[in-house]
Design brief:
It contains 14 helices and twelve strands. The chain binds pyridoxal-5'-phosphate.
Length: 382
């Protein structure tokens, strides 16, 4: 039987060669040969003034919260429609995640709702670029400026995508990327933090936090002759073996994006008719956004029962479609913290009715056609 997985890891073919090179050079710890190659590549390619590679996207968010000195009871506004790491980074410092509503068109945080949730305790906003589609960063930066707030972009899904003329992850004071195995460009577990602010003390302190609270990075640059403990910190430098894998991936940056665009274009072209007939209520229409990175492809159905029914029927045809985020405010943890499940109606509704189709870089024409054909059959039976 045909079996189309939801996701498939794409390797470029150079990963083992570069891993071997790292081992031959005895470059296995953090900040080695490939880390330096990857860092320069990302800075140049995406016009990033300072990027530091990290052990995960989650850790990049955690470093960001340390950098802005988030204090207990400080509030941080973020969407509820996101991965738990966004909220955990705030909770781990004793802060309070304040969940804002998303816009139906992009499933990204709605700037108008951010403004309504600002109090004297608000310290920061974390916009999340869902599926590699940019948030309305112009409005968000304006709001932040007006209220003197930090903006930390959760661009975990957003590498190699733009909002207007600037890459995601370079708009906010700080940006966070992920190279987890489920993202477009991967090393297994890994991430990066960008320091975009003119305030250079942020990037200096980020280097120290990332290097176990030491000024080791100055030592590596030859600016001090021994390094020592200078601040709080932890161990956030990824192994150079993983950066070797990432370097192989980044060499095919354009190919990976183009391949994924082909899948999105095929889905849109062939499924548009179901939007017009009203059977599908919405889909990720990548043509309608600024330069996205084709991270995922979703459909929205009229209700939860229809969505779940479509998932079951697709599975019986060998097509693995999946749901996505359970909104954080209505999750087990969210409810135990006292958030009310019915407080964000658009988010709630999207969480219950969104389905993601199989979507990966190496998807063949046959696989795409089989997904569309199966979906057509399933929708006819509804
Ligand atoms: C993947 C993801 C993260 C976490 O990244 P890791 O590298 O897996 O720690 C955080 N936020 C969002 C929105 C994500 O999609």
């Amino acid at each position: 039987m045909v079996n189309i997985p939801f996701n498939k890891i794409y390797f470029t073919g150079n990963e083992l060669k570069f891993i071997k090179e790292a081992l031959d050079k005895e470059s296995v710890s953090g900040d080695g040969y490939f880390t330096s190659l990857v860092t320069s590549f990302l800075e140049e390619r995406f016009s990033i003034s300072k990027i530091l590679m990290t052990t995960s996207g989650t850790h990049a968010l955690e470093i960001a919260m340390m950098l802005i000195d988030l204090k207990p009871d400080d509030e941080v506004i973020m969407p509820s429609f996101t991965f738990p790491s966004t909220a955990n980074s705030v909770m781990l410092r004793g802060g309070k995640p304040v969940f804002a509503e998303i816009s139906q068109k992009t499933l990204n945080i709605d700037p108008k709702d951010i403004e309504k949730r600002i109090t004297e305790k608000t310290r920061a906003i974390i916009p999340v670029h869902y599926g590699g589609v940019g948030c309305d960063m112009e409005s968000i930066m304006d709001i932040a400026k007006k209220h003197n707030l930090y903006v930390i972009e959760d661009a975990a899904q957003g590498l190699n995508a733009k909002y207007k003329d600037k890459y995601l992850g370079t708009w906010g004071h700080i940006g966070c990327y992920s190279f987890h195995g489920t993202k477009n460009y991967i090393c297994g577990e890994g991430g990066a933090i960008t320091l975009n602010s003119d305030d250079k003390s942020l990037s200096k302190r980020a280097e120290i936090i990332r290097q176990k609270g030491t000024n080791r990075s100055l030592f590596i640059k030859g600016e001090v002759d021994k390094y020592s403990w200078v601040d709080k910190g932890s161990s956030y430098t990824p192994s150079d073996i993983l950066m070797a894998v990432l370097y192989a991936q980044l060499q095919q940056l354009d190919y990976i994006k183009e391949s994924r665009k082909k899948v999105a274009d095929f889905y849109i072209k062939n499924l548009q008719k179901h939007i017009e007939s009203g059977i599908i209520k919405g889909m990720m229409d990548t043509n309608k956004y600024y330069d996205p990175n084709y991270h995922l492809f979703y459909l929205v159905f009229k209700d939860e029962m229809t969505r779940d029914n479509v998932i079951d029927k697709l599975r019986s045809k060998g097509v693995k479609a999946v749901i996505h985020f359970v909104p954080l405010h209505s999750s087990v943890m969210g409810q135990s913290l006292g958030y009310k499940p019915n407080s964000l109606p658009i988010t709630e509704n999207i969480g219950r009715t969104l389905l993601r189709l199989p979507f990966y870089t190496s998807m063949s024409d046959y696989e795409m056609e089989h997904v569309v054909k199966s979906l057509n059959e399933v929708l006819k039976e509804l």
